[in-house]
Amino acid sequence: MTTANYDALKVGDEIPSLTTEPVSRLTLALYATGSGDHHPLHLDQDYVRSKGIPDVFAHGMLGMAYLGRMLTQWVPQEAIRSFGVRFTAITQIGERMVCTGKVVEKLEQGGEKCVRLELTCANEQGEAKHKADAVVALA
């Protein structure tokens, strides 16, 4: 984890990115076990094909977890004041996810120096799968 400094950051600065391994069936099985979300859309190829979908796809919350991991590799978890995510596209098997973020505002909130971030989880082709925002408190 790096040490983020409020005074050193400027609007437009990027935070350290996170690139994942390609999403695999094992990734989905492990995520399903950890989250308790065993929906067949994410695990059962016969089920999805019966619905006219060519293959299983990632849980939406998996992308949120990747964004959360990126944040907590930059600041301690207790520094996160808010974190909201919008799901914008399906993450397919084999896609490597690239999580990025940038500072869009510096502010004081509740007596703390904070930054507002815009975050994106996209595939390597740049197709956004998740758009997010977060506010973190910094020293």
TrEMBL record:
InterPro entries: HotDog_dom_sf (IPR029069), MaoC-like_dom (IPR002539). It comes from the Bacteria. Transmembrane segments: none annotated. Residues 20-117 form the MaoC-like domain. It comes from Candidatus Accumulibacter contiguus. Pfam families: MaoC_dehydratas. The lineage of its organism: Bacteria, Pseudomonadati, Pseudomonadota, Betaproteobacteria, Candidatus Accumulibacter. This is Dehydratase.
